[in-house]
From TrEMBL:
PANTHER family: ALPHA-METHYLACYL-COA RACEMASE (PTHR48228:SF5), SUCCINYL-COA--D-CITRAMALATE COA-TRANSFERASE (PTHR48228)
One function term, GO molecular function aspect: transferase activity
Name under which the protein is recorded: Acetyl-CoA:oxalate CoA-transferase
Enzymatic class: transferase
Enzyme Commission code(s) on record: 2.8.3.19
InterPro entries: CoA-transferase_III (IPR050509), CoA-Trfase_fam_III (IPR003673), CoA-Trfase_III_dom3_sf (IPR044855), CoA-Trfase_III_dom_1_sf (IPR023606)
Keyword terms, alphabetized: Transferase
């Protein structure tokens, strides 16, 4: 079903991208009403198909699949026939590939002047790194992700989600929606150059700018706060304490001060003092949280107005009452799998998308 009110409900997008950023962007627009036709290489299809059905399904449920060899004249002719009736094309090749295939923006615009071409690449269509290979970790590294100190005992560690890929897919989806609406108003399409590195740089640059001058003493950086961190509990689990505002420190001291009087040290009463004595404050909190299990701390903070959260395990996450109440995660009982609803609630309603995973070269549904 499609939302009756959505301006994307009669939009058609040709998706010739693979893996995460492009397919995720088109999946978001599909959830908002667009039709997505996925063009795949005959025989192998999207590379994510080779990583397992669940991996491919994650970003391609509800799409149609067409198998076309874009290196052949017949495949290109069929592709351009799709473009004539489409609003946008999303591709994720390295810069120059679409031109070599004879399917660059000029070629697409020749058959459909209102077409929007969205090119999602690692480093953009131009620049010193444009031809470089890369994946999520590479873009994070070159965007200064690890240059921003955030913990008293900081370390470089791999993020648990593909942050830069998701940043790029969000910007791609937003830009596509705007460009498609603009093209429908004035009949003129355009080429969107989405660089994954640019996308994550837009998230990291301000923090990295503030970190300049602290490379030799990262713990002194103002963004490092001893009471805003992850702490280990007695049973080897972890909790998150997110204190920024001073009122929450006061609430923490009120809740735990009788048992742990060191928290009431006057030196720590205000943010400047805690920043001045970071190692001592952090060490004190480490000692305190190691005295009880995560379950015990969850009970302790249940009625306390402090930004406290248990670090949930994978099973705990899907049993969490708030996750269940919000309904973003939808369980597909027939497949023992999940799919995600669009993570914004529209008051006019947003129906669930088709759950069918398209076979290679065959329409879904």
């Amino acid at each position: 079903m499609k939302p009756e009110w959505s301006c994307l409900r009669d939009v058609k997008i040709i998706d010739v991208s693979q893996l995460l950023p492009g397919p995720h962007a088109t999946s978001l627009l599909m959830q908002l009403g667009a039709d997505v036709i996925k063009v795949e290489q005959p025989g192998t299809g999207d590379t994510s198909r080779q990583l397992g059905k669940a991996v491919f399904a994650q970003f391609n449920r509800g799409k149609q699949s067409v198998a076309l060899d874009l290196k052949s004249a017949q495949g290109r002719e069929a592709f351009l026939a799709l473009v004539r009736d489409a609003d946008a094309v999303v591709e994720g090749f390295r810069p120059g590939v679409m031109r070599r295939l004879g399917l660059d923006y000029e070629a697409l615009a020749a058959v459909n002047p209102a077409i929007v071409l969205c090119s999602v690449s690692g480093f953009g269509q131009e620049g010193p790194y444009a031809d470089h290979a890369g994946h999520d970790l590479n873009y994070l590294a070159l965007a200064g992700y690890w240059s921003v100190p955030v913990q008293v005992h900081d370390k470089v560690s791999r993020p648990r989600a593909r942050i830069s890929d998701y940043a790029a897919s969000g910007y791609a989806a937003l830009s596509l929606a705007v460009a498609i609406m603009s093209a429908r108003q004035n009949g003129r399409g355009q080429h969107l150059d989405v660089a994954i590195h640019d996308a994550i740089l837009s998230w990291t640059a301000h923090g990295a700018w503030g970190a300049r001058g602290y490379e030799e003493r990262p713990a002194d950086a103002p963004m490092v706060m001893p009471d805003n961190d992850l702490f280990e509990t007695r049973d080897g689990r972890h909790l998150a304490l997110g204190i920024l505002e001073n009122k929450f420190w006061g609430n923490l001291c009120e809740a735990l001060g009788e048992t742990f009087p060191a928290l009431r040290d006057p030196r720590f009463a205000q943010r400047p003092g805690r920043q001045q004595h970071k190692a001592e404050v952090h060490g004190l909190l480490q000692e305190i949280f190691r005295t009880r299990t995560l379950a015990a701390w969850s009970d302790t903070f249940a009625a306390v107005d402090v930004p406290f959260s248990p670090a949930l395990g994978a099973r705990e996450l899907f049993d969490d009452p708030h996750v269940q109440a919000r309904g973003t995660v939808r369980h597909l009982h027939d497949e023992d799998a999940i799919t995600l609803r669009f993570p914004v609630k529209f008051s006019l309603g947003l129906p669930d998308s088709d759950d069918t995973v398209p076979p290679l070269g065959g329409a879904c549904g």
